[in-house]
């Protein structure tokens, strides 16, 4: 479990993969916008090739740096940082974020004053400080259907976020995921079967089943620059493949056999339609979608060996 004893208010774990300048800006904001609490910053580098780890340590020698030999993905990478953390609270912070207005001090003090909550997220905004949609309820099979078909409406997420003040929710986004140390001690770390995506919903489900409560705390916020790591051209294909694998892992763990079969079949149908669409565009000379619209990738996904449907 934890390799070090609890001795600080907050451990800030930042996972990085080839986002050098974005990471440095994030770290700069952490140190400029965090005061009034005892904290540490743990940067976990997932085998970056852009000098991220070296630059971070040079400019911010006070950080704890953990460098992985390979890209372990989101869950396993963050777990490396959680294991060596010393905070009463641990926050998993995306590298493509900027802190504002000492938000972590506000979150720590709120959770100290409200012991009924165990997992928390602040409001997350874009660069113009407009609130970004964040799903606050557990993903259901029908949500998966809409997502596979490309029909999922984030406006529904935004509408569900209406209301004033902190409140209990079923799940929160993973851009800034604050967790009491005691939750990890009871239910364990993130499920490493997820390379990318679904891990926050999975973790919140397990926590809630153990009696822990999840809180949305819009009294403070941070800025998120969407897709700075997941849309890098050199890894886009891997992101798409691992997202598919993570979806199937999530279905197997939380949905019925009927929905597992139905959602897998729906995925296969969309892949084949994607192949037809991509070939048609190639013939017409209009194929400009990159990896997301690649016929070769759609075929690879169609025939990809997938996780078992047996519940874990």
Notes on the protein architecture:
There is one protein chain. By secondary structure, the protein is an alpha/beta fold. The chain folds into two domains: 208 residues, Spore Coat Polysaccharide Biosynthesis Protein SpsA, Chain A (Alpha-Beta Complex), CATH 3.90.550.10; 68 residues, no CATH class. Helices cover 42% and strands 18% of the residues. Strands 1, 2, 3, 4, 5, 6, 7, 8 and 9 form a nine-stranded mixed β-sheet that branches. α1 links the parallel β1 and β2. α1 packs parallel to α2, α5 packs parallel to α10 and α10 packs antiparallel against α11.
Give the topology, please:
Layout: E1 8-16, H1 20-32, E2 39-45, H2 52-59, E3 64-67, H3 73-83, E4 87-94, E5 97-99, H4 103-113, E6 119-125, H5 141-148, H6 154-160, E7 167-169, E8 176-180, H7 181-187, H8 199-209, E9 214-224, H9 236-254, H10 257-284, H11 295-303
Parallel strand pairs: 1-2, 1-4, 2-3, 6-9
Antiparallel strand pairs: 4-8, 5-9, 6-8, 7-9
